[in-house]
Design a protein that fits this description.
mainly alpha, 4% strand, two-stranded antiparallel sheet, 140 residues, Recoverin, domain 1
């Protein structure tokens, strides 16, 4: 059986861009640096680490929100992740925040944004993606 390399490359590009059938891509993927595959791996790792330590995503949020502001800043999430999971690069953490931010502030995650992110089975097309018309995100 011969492999259609052109079709395989096109499928890989679609997957990295969110896999939308119309060929669209997530608008924030280009500026955040990491691709969707990296964000999906980080999401899975983060979800596993939080589920092992906390009884709920809300409890985890409150623990990570050191200053009690009601939002997670990049520095707070980075500090938590460095303690819990050292395998997620800093640029991927920033990419996750950018990707999941749906209120446009791009610097923080609210509790609702965090719970939606953690409750999602996966990111991207058909999964959690609050920033596009393609979104079929899970609810908290």
């Amino acid at each position: 059986m011969e492999i259609d390399r052109v079709a395989a490359a096109a499928a890989k590009r679609r997957a990295l861009q969110g896999g939308y059938e119309d060929g669209g891509y997530h608008p924030k993927l280009r500026k955040t640096g990491p691709g969707l595959d990296s964000l999906r791996r980080a999401h899975k790792t983060l979800k596993r680490a939080i589920s092992a330590r906390y009884s709920s995503f809300r409890e985890a949020f409150q623990s990570i929100d050191v200053d009690g502001s009601g939002t997670l800043r990049r520095a707070e999430l980075r500090r938590f992740l460095t303690r819990m999971v050292k395998t997620i690069p800093d640029r991927v953490i920033s990419g996750l925040i950018d990707y999941c931010d749906d209120d446009g502030d791009t610097k923080t995650l609210s509790m609702d944004e965090f719970v939606k992110l953690m409750s999602a089975e996966y990111l991207g097309s058909g999964g959690f993606d609050p920033n596009t018309a393609h979104a079929k995100g899970s609810s908290a």
